[in-house]
Amino acid sequence: MNIAVPKEVHEGETRVSMIPEHVARLVQAGAEVSIEAGLGQTLRIVDGEYTKAGASVSPDRNALIQNADMVLRIRKPAAQEVEQMKQGCIYISLLDPFNEPELIDQFMARGVSAISMEMIPRITRAQKMDVLSSQANLAGYAAVIIASERLDKILPMMMTPAGTIAPARAFVIGVGVAGLQAIATAKRLGARVEAFDTRPVVEEQVKSLGARFVKIDLGETGQTKDGYAKALTEEQLQKQREGMAKVCASANIVITTAQLFGRPAPLIVTAEMVSGMQPGSVIVDLAVESGGNVAGSQVGQEVDVNGVRIIGLANLPGQVAVNASQMFSSNLYNLVEESWNTAEKKFDLNFEDEIIKGCVITHGGKIVNEMIANHYADK
Ligand code: NAD
């Protein structure tokens, strides 16, 4: 089986999908791996390291894709790249499948088996393949580091002969993977941390990290079987905003990470709440790419609203690209390894397997994923 790894071409992408360590393991398993020349450039990994790992290196991206039985990447492909894929090619990357009907049509027309890394089911066996978690964890860390750098205050309390400096206050909204790491990072740096999530099970986790859980009674909230939050009603969201306005007003740093799987993120911090915050404070909106939790946040921008800095940087894991690539590459490798047929040296698409069933979107010219098929059938 020929596995191709093209370079990431999305502007500002610093991460690398496959690092030499995982290429070597694929080669040991009997795969022929071809990488595009310069694949590791952003991380200062030279082509020679991939050659040493057993890969062949090609400067011809088109030929690489045309000859591939499998393609491994971080970002979704351009339309003309899908046109180049062989029938039956297995294409694996993030695909944003709820918002990409045209891309899905193309995969079907081409007979490509497209695997979406977002759709890996959240079962214990698949944790090692879960890019949403591995990248969100690093994004939570990066968000706090960026916020602390932009703030013109220190985070820890300091008792000095010149007087006592109070600790900075951080408020984390949405305590999934990113939120938990944001809390842990802000605590390590010495901030006083408060947090809120609509899933009540989170309270214990917040407390175990030494942060305070902000209680707002929203009535019935709950979570899906995969542990994702359910959408709130407009009335519940309004209650939540009222409950949070005071906490935001006393915070120096607000980090929002509230997402809803497969749907746009809820607007939580309104313009009114921003105007109630202290000038000099910083908001980092981690949900900016899926619609944003904060009024006025913009993808890839830092916006100043009456002295409050709203940071909407895209691709926060890319700020710590060495670790983000290491994790992403490991997730991709683990997915391939789990379904690798050692005797035939190929990837088995076994639809009896819960992981394959969950993450394959198209196969044999059809949408085979139930959730995605239902999503488009409703439209
Ligand atoms: P996510 O990125 O979808 O959302 C981030 C957080 O935002 C979630 O905690 C969600 O409850 C919260 N949220 C949504 N709407 C909100 C609102 N209006 N106000 C405040 N918060 C809101 O979630 P995630 O980080 O991917 O993780 C969700 C859960 O799944 C976590 O408990 C995580 O530990 C769990 N998980 C399980 C596995 C597994 O394999 N079993 C793997 C990864 C994550």
Which key terms come to mind for this protein?
379 residues; globular; 2 domains; 34% helix; Rossmann fold; 19 strands; 8-stranded mixed β-sheet; alpha/beta; binds nicotinamide-adenine-dinucleotide
The low-confidence parts are none
Tell me roughly what share of residues is in helical segments: 25-40%
Radius of gyration: 22 Å
In this entry the ligands are: nicotinamide-adenine-dinucleotide
CATH architecture of the largest domain: 3-Layer(aba) Sandwich
Main pleated-sheet profile:
8 strands, mixed
Question: How is this structure best summarized?
Answer:
Helices cover 34% and strands 18% of the residues. With 379 residues, the chain is of the alpha/beta class. The protein has two domains: 2-129 and 321-377, Rossmann fold; 137-314, Rossmann fold.
Write the topology of this structure.
Blueprint: E1 2-5, H1 20-28, E2 32-36, H2 47-52, E3 56-58, H3 61-66, E4 70-72, H4 79-84, E5 90-93, H5 101-110, E6 113-116, H6 131-150, E7 158-160, E8 163-165, E9 169-173, H7 177-188, E10 192-196, H8 202-208, E11 212-213, H9 234-250, E12 253-256, H10 271-275, E13 282-285, E14 302-305, E15 308-311, H11 321-338, E16 340-341, E17 346-347, H12 354-359, E18 360-363, E19 366-367, H13 370-377
Parallel strand pairs: 1-2, 1-4, 2-3, 4-5, 5-6, 9-10, 9-12, 10-11, 12-13, 13-15
Antiparallel strand pairs: 6-18, 7-8, 14-15, 16-17, 18-19
The protein binds nicotinamide-adenine-dinucleotide (NAD).
Nicotinamide-adenine-dinucleotide (NAD) is lined by residues 122, 127, 130, 132-133, 136, 173-179, 196-199, 227-229, 232, 240, 257-261, 266, 268.
